[in-house]
C-alpha cells in the first residue's frame, strides 16, 4: 500500500533562527550541541561570545540555493549531453523586526562605533555606511525530522540587500529586509543534520 | 578565538597588570569610553590593553549598549 512508501513523521513544520559572527568565525564545538533543544543559545554563547542572534523577523527566514546552469549540447541530438553549473547563489533572507543599532548595521552594510554614556553626555551609536561589503559568518538553526536539530553554516557571507523601510503611525512595524549571500567556496557551505543524541 | 582577520588581536598584554579586551560583536567595530579629563579609551576588534581591575566594568558598560567585549588574553 502506498502508506509503506512514505513516513509522515518526516514532514516538518517550524521556524528557523539565524545567528551571525565576524567573518570566518568557525562553528562552536559540536560536542556542546543540545540535541534536546536545537534553539538552546548556550551552544553559541561560549567565552567569549562570538555569535549573535539576528533577532525577531516579520515572516521568518527563507533559505535558497539559486543556480544558473548551462546545457551542453551537440548537433546530433536534441537532448543535452551534460549540464554545468555556471553560478550559484546560496542565501538566507528575512525581514528583521527589532529596530535597534545591530539591525541597522546589518541592513545597511554599516560599521558601528558605540560611545558609552557619561554623567555629562548620553551614550550613542554612530553607524557609518560603507561601500566595502562587510562579511559575516552566518548560521541558521532549525528543528529537523529527527528532532535533534540542523545547522546551515558558511564562514563568509555578505548582506547587500536593497533596504526599504516603512515608517507608519499604526499600520505596521518597521522592518529591515536582509539577504545574506555566501561569498566562499561552495565546499565551505555545510549543513549539519544531527541524527542522534549522545550515547549513554 | 577568531576575530576579524584584517585585524588580528593583540593577545599578549604589554603589562602583566593589564588585560587585552576586544570587541567581538560582529556588527560593531569599536567602543569608545570617555575618561575623566576629556580623554577617551577606544576598544577595537583588534584589542586594547586595559588595566585588569577596569576590564569587567568596561565589559559590563559595553553590554549595556548591546555590544559584547571579551578578554582575549
What summary fits the major beta sheet of chain B? Answer: 3 strands, antiparallel
Q: What percentage of amino acids of chain A are in beta strands? A: 35-45%
pLDDT averaged over residues of chain B: 82
* H/E series of chain B: EEEEHE
Mean pLDDT of chain A: 94
Distance between the ends of chain A: 38 Å
Roughly what percent helix of chain A? under 10%
| Shape annotation of chain A | globular
How far is the N terminus from the C terminus of chain B?
A: 10 Å
Instruction: Flag low-confidence runs of chain A.
Output: none
What structural category characterises the helix and strand content of chain B? alpha+beta
- How big is the Rg of chain A? 21 Å
Assembly type of the chains comes to: heterodimer
Tell me the Rg of chain B in angstroms: 11 Å
Poorly predicted tracts of residues of chain B:
none
Number of helices of chain B: 1
Described by strand count, sense and barrel closure, the largest sheet of chain A is: 8 strands, antiparallel
Shape of chain B: globular
User: H/E order of the elements of chain A?
Assistant: EEEEHEEEEEE
What does this protein look like?
The complex is a heterodimer of chains A (200) and B (73). Chain A has one helix at residues 101-107; strands spanning 16-22, 52-53, 57-72, 82-96, 110-115, 124-129, 135-142, 150-159, 176-182, 190-193. With 200 residues, chain A is mainly beta. In chain A, the strands form two sheets. In chain A, strands 1, 2, 3, 4, 7, 8, 9 and 10 form an eight-stranded antiparallel sheet that branches. Chain A has a two-stranded antiparallel ribbon with strand order 5-6. In chain A, a hairpin with an 8-residue loop joins strand 5 and strand 6 (124-129). Chain B has 73 residues and is of the alpha+beta class. Chain B contains one helix and five strands, in the order E-E-E-E-H-E. In chain B, a hairpin with a 5-residue loop joins strand 2 and strand 3. The mean pLDDT of chain B is 82. The A-B interface holds A 20-26, 47-50, 52, 100-102, 105-106, 111-116, 118, 121, 123, 125, 136-137 and B 1-5, 24-34, 45, 61-62, 65-68, 70-72. Strand 5 of chain A pairs parallel with strand 2 (30-34) of chain B.
